Amino acid sequence: MNRIITLDEFIIKRQKDFPYASGELTGLLRDIGVAAKIVNREVNKAGLLNILGVAGSENASGEEVQKLDLYANEKLIDCLKNSGECCGVASEELEDFVPIQSVSGKTSKYVVVFDPLDGSSNIDVNVSVGTIFGIYRRQSEAEGPCQMDDFLQKGTELVAAGYVLYGTSTLLVYSTGRGVNGFTLDPTIGEFCLSHTDIQIPDRGNYYAVNQGYYLKFDVEMRRYIDYCSDMNLRLRYIGSMVSDIHRILFQGGIFLYPNTRKYPQGKLRLVYECNPLSFIVEQAGGKGITCQLERILELPVNHLHQRATIAIGSPGMVDEMKAFVERYSAAPTFNNGQ
Ligand code: AHG
Ligand code: MN
Ligand code: MN
Predict the structure, then answer these.
(1) Percentage of the chain surpassing pLDDT 70?
(2) For residue 117, which ligand has an atom nearest its CA?
(3) Which of 29, 216, 228, 286 matches a 20 to 30 Å C-alpha distance to 7?
(4) Ligand 1: distance of its center to the CA of 101 in Å?
């Protein structure tokens, strides 16, 4: 049997690949791993504790908050506060970013953005949920507290990003810009162990993921592309947890779409907490992530923390095909009044 490589070991080994690395990013990734284990523990026994259901409040995006959203949010912030490697966090669940005071006078270089629990409406019915994170190098002076601009960086500036999937097994997938690796939590030893090395997304796949219930609310070019997916007998899979849907596509190939609708004219998903980190991972695995208006997600200017974006992400061959549909049908003249 091959020797087990734990997440900690792997991260430390990789640090040696960066000649001037100070170990801070290494520490930060390890702390996120610890937070993931704590959240995993609670998600796993959620039905036994009084932590299912809604918390009775709305988050910064005006959505209903689940108790576990808040729990995961707190645990991530606690772990990052204790780590001393992070000078601030921004979370989907918080209106504003939170500066973190330096520990024992040490100034830290990084800020972390996260969606503490993605797909949280799935929790009460025991369906997979996830955590998404992104790490940026701070732009503000190291001496003072972090600033808003530290968080409003384009996705191209991500130093690292990843996700944790609390599914049939618990997986942590991350990239520091040199490929993507996956680690499965072995509950018997409480460690994430390397299970998927250098993940590459297939050029095409048999799956498409979109909330087909909104079909009539999509623009015509998007409807045409979805019709085409159906004509091609692609299999529709939509979990309602972006992490889970993207995870399937990363391994088996396919495309995930969340276009603009009447309710969400800018798209629903959040650029900072969802679209950018997952686009970083998918691109690192050889895939593509663009908006339904065909801009590369990672290059979008970020104007505010809770900004939304439309997204088409997944296998490169399929994203290119979707792009061709949009170009073709949005260029076609529209005829009104029977003309
Ligand atoms: P969150 O639970 O963090 O608010 O994210 C839910 C997101 C995403 O994970 C999922 O793909 C999408 O919302 C589902 O939205 P619809 O129910 O509108 O399809
Ligand atoms: Mn989410
Ligand atoms: Mn969430």
Answers:
(1) 91
(2) 3
(3) 286
(4) 32
